[in-house]
Amino acid sequence: MSKARKKTTAPATFEAAMEQLEDSVGQLESGELTLEESLEVFEQGIAASRACATLLDQTRKRVQVLVEKAGGDLELDFLDASPEDDAA
Q1: What is the b/e burial string over 27-64, where b = at least 16 CB atoms within 10 angstroms of the residue's CB?
Q2: DSSP 3-state assignment of 66?
Q3: What is the rounded distance in angstroms from the CA atom of residue 16 to the CA atom of residue 7?
Q4: Which residues, 6 or more positions from 47, have their beta carbon under 8 angstroms from its beta carbon?
Q5: What Rg, from alpha-carbon coordinates, does the chain have?
Q6: What is the pLDDT along the chain (88 residues), one digit of tens a residue?
Q7: C-alpha distances in Å from residue 83, one per residue of 32, 80, 88
Q8: What distance separates the 2 farthest-apart alpha carbons in the chain?
Q9: pTM, whole model, 2 decimals?
């Protein structure tokens, strides 16, 4: 089995997806892969990138909070927003 071939299962964590993406980039930058291996590694990198985006989106959704303002309007706030951000 060549060094380009790896499991194509989606990483379970953001960190694992980032590691897989960084590994793919490193292999592609090495210039040691055949065209077919490069395409396979590229596809793995795209899958890892999509996994990162999905995991980040899921995390963002988990920290969103809808806060009802006076008058019944809803405002989207983030749990990590500081009071200084609201003053700006």
Answers
A1: bbeeeebeeebbebbbebbebbbebbeebeeeeeeeee
A2: strand
A3: 13
A4: 8, 10
A5: 20
A6: 345 555 567 788 999 999 999 999 999 999 999 999 999 999 999 999 999 999 999 887 776 655 556 666 767 666 654 445 444 4
A7: 51, 10, 9
A8: 64
A9: 0.64
